[in-house]
Amino acid sequence: MSQPTTSGVVPMVEIRGLHKEFGHLHVLRGIDLDVPQGSVCVILGPSGSGKSTVLRCINELEDITAGRVRVDGELMGYREGTRGGKPALFRLGSRDIARQRARIGMVFQRFNLFPHMTARQNVMEAQIRVLRRSKAEAGARADELLRRVGLSDRAEHYPAQLSGGQQQRVAIARALAMDPELMLFDEPTSALDPELVGEVLAVMRDLARSGMTMVVVTHELGFAREVADQVVFMADGVVVERGTPAGVLENPQETRTRDFLASVL
Amino acid sequence: MSDLAGQGRAKSPDPAASTSDPVPDRIHAVPVRHPGRWASAVVVLVLAAMVVHGLVTNDKFDWPTVGKYLFNEQVVRGVGWTLWLTVAAMVIGIVLAVLLAVMRRSENPVMRYVSWIYIWFFRGTPIYTQLVFWGLISVLYPKLSLGVPFGPEWLHFTTTELVTASRAAILGLGLNEAAYLAEIVRAGLQSVDRGQEEASRALGMKDSTILRRVILPQAMRVIVPPTGNETISMLKTTSLVLAVPFILDLNYATRAIGTRIFLPVPLLVVAAIWYLAITSVLMVGQHYLERHYGRGFDEHHGGRAGGGPGGRATRQEAIAEAGTTPEIAVFDDMGRPHGGGAGGAR
Ligand SMILES: Nc1ncnc2c1ncn2[C@@H]1O[C@H](COP(=O)(O)OP(=O)(O)O)[C@@H](O)[C@H]1O
Ligand SMILES: [Mg+2]
């Protein structure tokens, strides 16, 4: 960890000493990460280095083994208290965890749209079930977001009738419909045909420009160079190198970073 | 089937072809001949004619008597009871099966064991024995009461009044069916991609919402066909309710009449006709259920409703549209495109 928290402003994401084991597999070995509000953090690293696991720990899709994850100052997954006079962590109930997750949007490599719902219904569903919006309200918001990602004319299509790029844009609209304060992207363009990557990156670029805080796992170095405020290079469950895009991408200090960048280009 | 498709393909370009076909030299090939189909059709027709002829001319079937009793009051009431037993038992079975399947997936080990033991017991004992047991319940437990376990009791029932013969029959059939359906539901739940649950959780949905809105609707695609099978099987299993004993169902009614008038065979035919008729109706219902839960999974269905402005904006869509027409002719056995699926999906 390096950046001092600037002038008392709480970072949107604050990870301290994060460890994660899957059984005997020690996947994350002490991660520290700060993502200031309104900034974009791009995570790079070879396959299996633990990038997805970091994202999944941020929104509690995985139970963490050690460390603290805070989003907008709120400790994720636990409540700090005392037990028998000693400080202790109390696991939050599923209701509270669901509430914490609802503030964080996530976009998956394989889209994970609901195949039995149209694009519009995909964007409406959680608004109605989680935010308790009315159908009319959710529908209006869905239409607005589908327009924003350029899919107004595909609203009534089922996912199977959409191209990969269109599906991923619907998935982004679905996450944005929850009015998240943070967006997580896990290799959002890796499952796409090359000619469809651009349309998804364009939507993400717009989103970054609008001031959304984003943590993006991607191999798109062009996107990182252009949009990221901070680039983090991970390998074997630790952060090997971090800094500005120019610093990490043009002038990497570590051999592992250099090897990786050479292999991606 | 593919003959139909062939015709559809040959016809569809016609309107454009006459005047300004954008495709030069469109192929109008002579379709492949299928002599084997014609030969098999002739053989089948001859065999069918022989069977029908044999049925009609054999006076042991006694068709006048069949006609006389087909809509006999006792028979029709039997049909009503059989339908009611089937529907009620299946409803109990399905509700309980979903519960059991969800318990099997629970993180709570107590729930998992309870579910396992239930399925083990009800699948492991014969349905006939279970029905006899439910018939005897008022002898085994003459009084039932509602209250605190081992504590005060608030309500008392006489078992014979609460568990009538028809209720015992429905309970017996339903509880047994639940054990089988639970395994079907479990397979259905397992068939849904794990990413669906992840995406739902990431959106902040509760477990119950995820199950009801995301997992179950997709699992239904896998659940409905074998459940249709179970329903049809249940229709005929209802004839076992004699074990309770319950004696108003179709099977008992026709047998009773047949014995009374010393003409068992025509009454057997009456029963068979009714069972066949009900099965046919159930199959139609199953077809529509399968179509409903298949929405969004077969990309050739529906979805044009929102096409509207923009037209063929992308290459993919142009390809999809080009491929759609003949595919529908092949896959849709109702003979028409599944339009409006998008609009009426809710
Ligand atoms: N649910 C899991 N159970 C066991 N091992 C897992 C699980 N998820 C990830 N892993 C392992 O953790 C390591 C890091 O995975 P991941 O975070 O997906 O890497 P990346 O996204 O950087 O490719 C890999 O070795 C992977 O096999
Ligand atoms: Mg990954």
UniProtKB/TrEMBL annotation, chain A:
Keywords: Amino-acid transport, ATP-binding, Cell membrane, Membrane, Nucleotide-binding, Transport
Keyword Magnesium (UniProt): no
Signal peptide: none
Topological relation to the membrane, as annotated: Peripheral membrane protein
Coarse class of the protein's main subcellular location: membrane
Domain named ABC transporter: residues: 13-261
Keyword flag Transferase: no
Localization per record: Cell membrane
Family indicated by similarity: Belongs to the ABC transporter superfamily.
PANTHER family: AMINO ACID IMPORT ATP-BINDING PROTEIN, GLUTAMATE_ASPARTATE IMPORT ATP-BINDING PROTEIN GLTL
Protein name according to UniProt: ATP-binding protein
Organism of provenance: Luteimicrobium album
From TrEMBL, chain B:
Principal subcellular localisation of the protein: membrane
Any matching Pfam family: BPD_transp_1
Residue ranges the record marks as coiled coil: none
TM ranges: 38-56, 81-103, 115-141, 261-285
Region (Disordered): 1-25
CDD domains in alphabetical order: TM_PBP2
Membrane topology classification: Multi-pass membrane protein
Domain ABC transmembrane type-1: 79-288
Protein keywords: Amino-acid transport, Cell membrane, Membrane, Transmembrane, Transmembrane helix, Transport
Domain of life of the organism encoding this protein: Bacteria
Localization (cell): Cell membrane
Family recorded in the similarity comment: Belongs to the binding-protein-dependent transport system permease family.
Descriptive protein name: ABC transporter permease
